[in-house]
Amino acid sequence: MQATPKQKDHWRRNLRITGALLALWFGVSFGIGWFARDLDFSFFGWPFSFWVGAQGALILNVAIIGFYARTMNRLDREHGVAEEE
């Protein structure tokens, strides 16, 4: 089965979004955790580096998931492959 130009565009945009969000995820998960040790001040009674590692990265990862779901739903509607509710 040969993909139509519309399907190829959908897949290309899907890969671009996924790649960008994976790069952001990598930066959040590893980059912030790596550099958080240098953040040496108290935040609500805890070291800020602990808060970033324990809470900040988790919040940003949930935000990435929400953004991906919303963006993919919109992309699916644009290309006529959205699931019916």
Describe this structure in words.
By secondary structure, the protein is mostly helical. The chain has 2 helices and 2 strands, in the order αββα. The chain has a domain of 39 residues. The chain starts with a helix and ends in a 7-residue tail after the last helix.
Write the layout of secondary structure elements.
Elements: H1 5-35, E1 42-43, E2 46-47, H2 48-78
Antiparallel strand pairs: 1-2
Helix pairs in contact: 1-2
What labels describe this entry?
single chain, 85 residues, mainly alpha, two-stranded antiparallel sheet, 2 helices
Condensed summary:
By secondary structure, the protein is mainly alpha-helical.
Please outline the major beta sheet. Answer: 2 strands, antiparallel
Mean pLDDT: 85
Gross morphology:
elongated
Largest beta sheet: strand ordering:
1-2
Distance between the termini: 28 Å
- Percent strand equals under 5%
Assembly state of the chains shown: single chain
- List SSEs in N-to-C order: HEEH
